[in-house]
């Protein structure tokens, strides 16, 4: 048997089958309970109406029996069978349709003078009747105390004959259960159809093509939310993979230059044996140092992303003063700090942010670098300001991307890797803060924001 692609075949372990089977079992149970209760209610209602009428007819005839005379029976359309039977079971008086055989052998007592019974003779239809005993006083006056009995009855209604009522009500219950089951099957299929489409689309997505998205149904139900969440996850995954590929390409490019220089120096030493080994090694060391610098910064960048940092209370004011005092060469650095600017973080990593920002500011400044640490609401602010040319607005975000180096940076620091500012921002984000370049009347103004330590 061939199966067309995209056709959903329900399996025994599928949600649709399990839900349908569960509802079918529950619906059969509920239908059985309803059918049983309905049968008992209908049967009781019909029997009550019939016995009420037969008892009325029997009671009225007994009440008409007076001393010395017995009126003829008065059958009705609903109660056509009326008899008077003596204690030996002989019919002494009967209606035209009652016949000459007793309708029943039931003999009510003086304590319980009326009994409702259903008689079903062999090969004959059942009769529902009321057996009534003539009071002893009337029996004494009429028959010298011999007990006599009145039977008033009628043929059993067709609805109560055999199992017709049970069959009809059971058939209705079965149809109701089948309708519930069919409705559940259709509803479950309609609900699960978008999930099946999502599953099929997810199976088509591979690492080589993350641009596909799952079908997103309209509305705000759980399935629509699932599809939106899946598409958002796929979007983040595609962006992460794209960044990773771009990062790998940039790393390869950045490592290619020092590796080429190192290889060139080694090949030159092999081609020209007269070249001294120490001279060849000395010429290759700068390329090796640059490769080591790039690799160290890459390891720090990856470790920061994948490993949580240990935290401790850090006084940013004291840290900024220490780092500013350590900058004894180059453009002078002026520090201004407020007391008790405390944050929760890794002291070494936060110090590396301040150091990188100060080194970068000194590289681009012409006469002075200002650094400050202060409180601003529930945040701690570290501001590094230089008096250089500043950063163009369109480049203020780009400089935080890995391996991004502007023309001024390449000119002032030819050996840089372009990972310093990217690493600084990654550390700030890991500390639930931010690092950005803001407007300033002169130079570049780098602002680090971190949550203040409270309590």
Q: Write the H/E string, N to C.
A: HEEEEHEHHHEHEEHEEHHEE
Number of strands: 12
Low-confidence stretches: 1-10
Question: What radius of gyration results from the CA coordinates?
Answer: 51 Å
* End-to-end Cα distance: 72 Å
User: How much helix, percentage-wise, in residues?
Assistant: 40-55%
The largest sheet, given as strand count, sense and whether it forms a barrel, is: 5 strands, antiparallel
By CATH reckoning, the class of the largest domain would read Alpha Beta
Mean pLDDT score: 82
Please give a structural write-up:
The protein is α+β, with helices and mostly antiparallel strands and 455 residues long. The chain has three domains: 65-157, Beta-Lactamase, CATH 3.30.450; 222-304, Orthogonal Bundle (Helix Hairpins), CATH 1.10.287; 309-451, Histidine kinase-like ATPase, C-terminal domain (Heat Shock Protein 90). It is built from nine helices and twelve strands. The protein has helices at residues 15-64, 136-143, 164-204, 222-271, 277-306, 316-326, 347-364, 407-412, 420-430, and strands at residues 81-86, 91-94, 114-119, 127-133, 148-155, 312-315, 333-337, 342-345, 369-376, 379-386, 434-438, 445-451. Strands 2-1-5-4-3 form a five-stranded antiparallel beta sheet. Strand 1 (81-86) and strand 2 (91-94) form a beta hairpin. Helix 4 runs antiparallel to helix 5 (277-306), helix 5 packs parallel to helix 9 (420-430) and helix 6 (316-326) crosses helix 7.
């Amino acid at each position: 048997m061939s199966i067309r692609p995209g056709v959903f075949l329900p399996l025994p372990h599928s949600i649709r089958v399990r839900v349908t089977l569960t509802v079918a079992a529950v619906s059969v149970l509920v239908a059985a309970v309803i059918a049983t209760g309905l049968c008992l209610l209908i049967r009781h209602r019909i029997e009550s109406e019939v016995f009420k009428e037969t008892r009325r007819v029997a009671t009225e005839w007994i009440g008409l029996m007076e001393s010395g005379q017995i009126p003829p029976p008065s059958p009705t359309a609903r109660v056509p069978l009326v008899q008077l039977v003596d204690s030996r079971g002989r019919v002494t008086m009967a209606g035209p349709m009652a016949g000459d055989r007793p309708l029943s052998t039931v003999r009510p007592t003086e304590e319980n003078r009326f009994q409702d019974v259903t008689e079903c003779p062999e090969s004959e239809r059942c009769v529902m009747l009321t057996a009534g005993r003539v009071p002893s006083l009337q029996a004494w006056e009429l028959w010298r105390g011999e007990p006599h009995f009145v039977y008033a009855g009628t043929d059993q209604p067709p609805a109560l004959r055999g199992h017709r009522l049970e069959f009809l009500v059971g058939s209705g219950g079965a149809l109701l259960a089948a309708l519930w089951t069919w409705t559940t099957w259709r509803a479950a299929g309609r609900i699960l159809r978008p999930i099946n489409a999502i599953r099929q689309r997810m199976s088509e997505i591979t690492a080589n093509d993350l641009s596909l998205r799952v079908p997103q149904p309209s509305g705000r139900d759980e399935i629509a939310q699932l599809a939106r969440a899946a598409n958002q996850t796929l979007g983040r995954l595609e962006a992460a993979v794209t960044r990773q590929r771009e990062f790998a390409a940039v790393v390869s490019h950045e490592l290619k230059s020092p590796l080429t220089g190192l290889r060139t120096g080694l090949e030159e030493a092999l081609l020209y044996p007269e070249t001294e080994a120490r001279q060849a090694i000395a010429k290759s060391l700068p390329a090796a140092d640059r490769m080591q610098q790039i690799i160290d910064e890459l390891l720090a960048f990856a470790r920061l992303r994948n490993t949580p940092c240990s935290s401790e209370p850090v006084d940013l004011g004291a840290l900024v003063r220490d780092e500013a005092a350590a900058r004894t060469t180059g453009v002078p650095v002026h520090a201004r700090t407020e007391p008790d600017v405390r944050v929760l973080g890794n002291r070494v990593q936060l110090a590396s942010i301040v150091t990188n920002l100060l080194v970068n500011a000194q590289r681009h400044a012409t006469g002075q670098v200002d650094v400050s640490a202060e409180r601003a609401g529930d945040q701690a602010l570290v501001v590094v300001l230089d008096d250089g040319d500043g950063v163009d607005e369109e480049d203020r975000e780009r400089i935080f991307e890995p391996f991004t180096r502007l023309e001024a940076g390449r000119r002032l620091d030819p050996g840089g890797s372009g990972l310093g500012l990217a690493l600084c921002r990654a550390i700030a984000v890991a500390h639930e803060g931010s690092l950005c370049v803001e407007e300033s009347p002169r130079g570049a103004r780098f602002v680090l924001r971190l949550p203040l330590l409270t309590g």
